[in-house]
Amino acid sequence: MSALHRARKAAVALTATAAAAATLSLGTPSASAAPQPIVGGTTTTTTSYPFMMQITDASQNQFCGGTLVAPTKVVTAAHCVVDETASSVRVVGGRTYLNGTNGTVSRVGDIWIHPDYTDVTNGDDVAVLTLSTSMPYTTAPYVSSAQTNVYAAGTTARILGWGTTSENGSSSNQLRTATVPVVSDSGCGSAYGSDFVRSDMVCAGYTSGGTDSCQGDSGGPLLIGGVLAGITSWGEGCAKAGYPGVYTRLTTFSSLVTSEVNS
Ligand code: ARG
After folding, report:
1. What are the boundaries of the signal sequence (predicted)?
2. What is the number of the ligand 1 atom nearest to the C-alpha of 77?
3. Is residue 191, in this structure, part of any structural domain at all?
């Protein structure tokens, strides 16, 4: 579990600069780990995915992703914002590049974190940010609580983010995307034991690894059929064979999210 714990420590408040520094303290990546996109995948743009938001600090340094589900509402991970205050966070839309200055920057008026959230391995990794400024971008639909069938094993899901492109690598300046198959709950349980909370999490990734979300992608979307169905949450390292990425199972939290979206 040490790699998981290190990954989690490295995850929150990760900036491009912090990622480079973290690499030093996390040890040398294996020589065979070639740099890969998101890990595995391709570059894309916020024009293609207009609901894809950067969650940043007050200086607009990105540390997580988020999904615009209403003009002033962004779904992200609880672990992304649990140590933040509304005044310390910004949401940036319409900005494909981390070093860009374009798009729309909003302050955050309110951070709602699932009241039961303690740690990613205990589930409840969901938060909703209320923006002070409306985002002029197309929102993403999200699953209803009834749509539990979307997580059928083998279903293709899409992940997005600016996170590190290898396990101990650095963030991607350009937004990246990849597709990964949903993993069965039994398969995910075999990988993660009691850290996999079936009601609150869903796994996605190839058995052989190679494609995954990674540090800095947290809070961003797992889309199934173009609908927000998961939130990037955690994993043992990144893109490792036998260790799929773990995402918040949004159907479980859909009604709660709707309450916040309508509040
Ligand atoms: N916890 C990470 C973050 O805060 C996301 C890790 C996802 N890991 C994975 N192997 N899919 O950015």
Report:
1. 1-33
2. 4
3. yes
Identified catalytic residue from 124, 125, 195, 200? 125
Q: Is the CB of 217 under 6 A from ligand 1?
A: yes
**CATH no. for residue 160?**
2.40.10.10
pTM to 2 decimals? Answer: 0.88
Our answer on whether the CB atom of 234 is closer than 6 Å to any ligand 1 atom is: yes
The helix/strand/coil state of 8 is helix
- Contacts (Cβ under 8 Å, ≥6 apart) of 174: 43, 44, 45, 96, 97, 98, 162
For ligand 1, is residue 215 a contact (CB within 6 Å)? Answer: yes
DSSP 3-state of 37: coil
pLDDT single digits (tens) 133-191: 999 999 999 999 999 999 999 999 999 999 999 998 899 999 999 999 999 999 999 99
Is residue 157 assigned to a domain?
yes
Question: What's the domain count of the chain?
Answer: 1
Q: Please indicate, yes or no, if residue 262 is contained in any of the structural domains.
A: no
Residue 196, domain extent: 148-251
